[in-house]
Amino acid sequence: MNDPKLIPSLLTSTKTIAVVGLSDNPAKPSHYVSAYMQQHSYRILPVNPALAHVLGEPAHASLTALVQSGITPDLVNVFRLPSFLPGIVDEMLSLGLGRLWVQQGIVHPEAAAHAEANGIRVVMDRCIMIEHRQIQVEHRRTHLA
Q: What does R_g of the chain's alpha carbons equal in angstroms?
């Protein structure tokens, strides 16, 4: 979990991100973090049963509904309370989804261990936007030196 090489690898190889718990409220981290990622060429796939659309994309009631619609995300990004993580991991396993990013402040070591024991790559308690920005800064330093 949180392998320093895994984070840049996930971010550079990912094109589609299913965001579990994406809000339509621009003041909420799930919204502005996802909007940032969308502005940096990632397709955001909202997973929230209470919404029809977010950030110009149709929302799906669950990861299962998303995959049944014909879309398989490269990465699942979670903005839900830790108590929801075991169910999300189980759903990912049933769907064959192999990459999980759990946002900063959300921690469930048992769910992460279960995910990893079953082949899911896990980043936990890290902000995808902050990590993306850091990679951008490092990329600029490397190419300006």
A: 15
pLDDT digits (tens, 9 = 90+) for 12-44: 999 999 999 999 999 999 999 999 999 999 999
DSSP class per residue in 105-126: T---HHHHHHHHHTT-EEEES-
Helix axes 6-13, 128-144, angle to 10 degrees: 90
Q: Which residue has the tokens 């830790």?
A: 82
Residue 19: domain span = 6-144
Burial of 28 (0-12, 13-18, 19+ CB in 10 A): middle
Contacts of 21 (CB under 8 A, 6+ apart): 30, 47, 48, 78, 79, 80, 84
pTM: 0.93
Q: Looking at residue 16, which CATH number applies to its domain?
A: 3.40.50.720
Half-sphere exposure of 136 (CA within 13 A, CB side): 9
